[in-house]
Amino acid sequence: MGALVLMALITCSTGVAAAQEIVVGITAWPSAKVSAYVIGQVLAERTGVTPVYVERGSVGLLTSIARGDIDVYPELWSPNLDAAVSRAGAAVTVSTRSVTGKQGICATRAAIDQTGIKAVSDLTNPDIAAAFDSDDDGRGELWIGDASWFSTQVERVRARSAGYDQTMQLLQAPEDMAMAAVDASVALAQPLVFYCYSPHHVFVLHDVVMLAEPAFDAAAWQLVAPAGDPDWLEHSRAETAWDVSSLSIAFATRLKTELPAVADILGRIQFEAEDIAGMSYVLQVERKSPEAAAHEWLAEHRARIDGWFE
Amino acid sequence: MSVGPSRRRLLELGLAGLAAGLIGAPAQAQAIYSQIYDAKRKKWIDYDPRRAQQYYAAYGSVPEEFKRQLVPFRTAEKPGTVIIDGDRHFLYLVQPEFQAIRYGIGVGRDGFGWAGIVAIGRMVEWPTWTPPPEMIARDPKSAQWANGMPGGPDNPLGARAMYLYEGGKDTIYRIHGTAEPWSIGLNISSGCIRLNNDDVTDLYSRVAVGAKVVVLMSGAALYRGV
Predict the structure, then answer these.
(1) Pairing mode, if any, of strands B43-47 and B34-38?
(2) ipTM value of the model?
(3) Number of helical (H) and strand (E) elements in chain A, helices listed first
(4) How far is CA B69 from CA B4, B66, B75, B92, in A?
(5) Spans of all domains in chain B
(6) CA nearest neighbour of A141 among A156, A157, A130
């Protein structure tokens, strides 16, 4: 059996010394914990390198790659980390293959069935907004994100620009509280709307739909930073949907010369949004370890993986 | 188009908040009513103290809605986590396989006034109850217990108490039993999160110190000023 494994490694190897270590960073984002192991395993299978995993925060991980301590960043969010990538300069290469991410306002199935809501702008309709009212003040409630998130500021701007800040109370709280509220609402078939982003396991766990909005238009967005202007909210506007986000693998540019086979593979890996949501789900909901979740994903997607390298 | 239920509850905001933030909530009056779900008519109906007492006198229990039961509950929270929906007067104890044990709860007349993620920091059987100074000022009869009322069937904390901690510190909020089992489903009397004594004993037997407790932002206007 051992000989067979060795044969397989030799067959798949593209010539990298077996003892070569590749340091894969792991961020706190659930799916990134799984995709890091998937990436590491694919590299091991195809080049014979030995993956080593190191946990880091997002910005710290980029800094470590620029410094030469870490080789791979499994899920780099853009535009969120664009500034940090710029600071890292030429030392970091971002794969051109990416997964599209979205953010906006979601509605539960009960919300759609009971109110007919289809678009975010429907929240400006007082009758529809009242369907989300939990305290009988005539206005609905809407979780817009964690207080520490950049997106939460933007959601305040978006609510003001669209006008549903007049019909909905905007709530900010940790995501666990918001997701538990979704769980409880679904359990009782109560209508709920909430800020959401994908890929995310909530789309696997529950029947929720992102509400329609006018397509992103940069000309309709002007964000003023709160730090520099006490009236930032009044001076900001965001009248359309968010621009799409993207998740990509990033890696140390030096790999292109030091380990070109590794760099080539990193540039070919192409996850899909449902992969990322599924990885998040397996980790968060099924409570499997990142290693086990990655092993399972690899076993189920052999054809897809082969397709990356054709 | 049907709209969601209107829930008139609570008199005023009283308690300081924990983690939840609220942006721009208006002040408004609230009535003391609660509601219960009528499964046959598929609608929420008003449930007030008088109705509750009549119901309990007639049937010897709270409405079916508030009885302990295993329900489907899809969540990413792990088994053993407690989720409290004060708006609906339910406490969920997450179980494996997307199920939860759902208990009926009562909350104080001030509702929760807070929401957040806390943990069970201490657990006590037949806890001693000490009336707060403002209660002694309001109700001279409670002064006899100023140094603590021993645990027992008349003790307002009931058979068990689970003390909620945040960051290792007591929040002053508790999940506890009650000497007034008919009050489950309502926002009346003082207290935090009340279960009837059978239920609080059952919950107590199933949770451990350190269990995560998520208190939802239900009744969001309760959090104004937080």
Answers:
(1) antiparallel
(2) 0.76
(3) 15, 11
(4) 24, 8, 17, 10
(5) 34-223
(6) A130
What residue in A sits closest to B23 (Cα-Cα)? A170
Is-contact B221 B111, C-beta < 8 A? no
CATH superfamily for domain A102-238 = Glycine betaine-binding periplasmic protein; domain 2 (3.40.190.100)
Is A155 in the B-facing interface, judged by CB distances under 8 Å? no
Contacts of B9 (CB under 8 A, 6+ apart): A135, A136, B30, B31, B32, B33, B34, B111, B187, B219
Residues 6+ away with beta carbon under 8 Å from A246: A77, A78, A98, A99, A100, A101
Q: pLDDT of A73-104, one tens digit each?
A: 999 988 778 888 999 999 999 999 999 999 99
Q: Does B83 touch chain A (CB under 8 A)?
A: yes
CATH class of B34-223: mainly beta
Q: Do domains A15-100+245-308 and A102-238 have the same CATH topology?
A: yes
User: Residue A11: phi, psi to the nearest 5?
Assistant: -65, -45
d(CA B78, CA B94): 7
Q: How is A169-214 classified by DSSP, letter by letter?
A: EEEE--HHHHHHHHHHHHHTT---EEEEEES-THHHHS-EEEPB-P
Count of CB atoms within 10 A of residue A232's CB? 16
Is A167 an interface residue toward B (CB < 8 Å)? no
Of B24, B74, B220, the CB nearest to A183: B74
Tokens of B212: 């995560």
pLDDT one-digit tens code per residue, B134-149: 778 877 888 888 899 9
A15-100+245-308 folds as D-Maltodextrin-Binding Protein; domain 2 (3.40.190)
b (16+ CB within 10 A) / e for B164-198: bbbeeeebebbbbbbbbbbbbbbbbbbbbbbbbbe
Alpha helix stretches (DSSP H) within chain B: 49-59, 133-138, 197-206
Note whether A135 contacts B75, CB cutoff 8 Å: no
What is the pLDDT at residue A149? 79
Shortest distance, CA B132 to any CA of chain A (angstroms): 28
**Contact: B75, A127; criterion CB under 8 Å:** no
| Cβ neighbours of B99 (radius 10 Å) | 17
φ, ψ of residue A69 to 5 degrees: the values are: -85, -30
A176 and B218 within 8 Å at the Cβ level: the answer is: no
For B88-127, write each residue's pLDDT tens digit.
Answer: 889 999 999 999 999 999 876 655 567 889 999 999 999 9
Domain boundaries, chain A: 15-100+245-308, 102-238
Residue pair B33/B45 in contact by the 8 Å Cβ criterion: no
Residue of B nearest to A201 (CA): B76
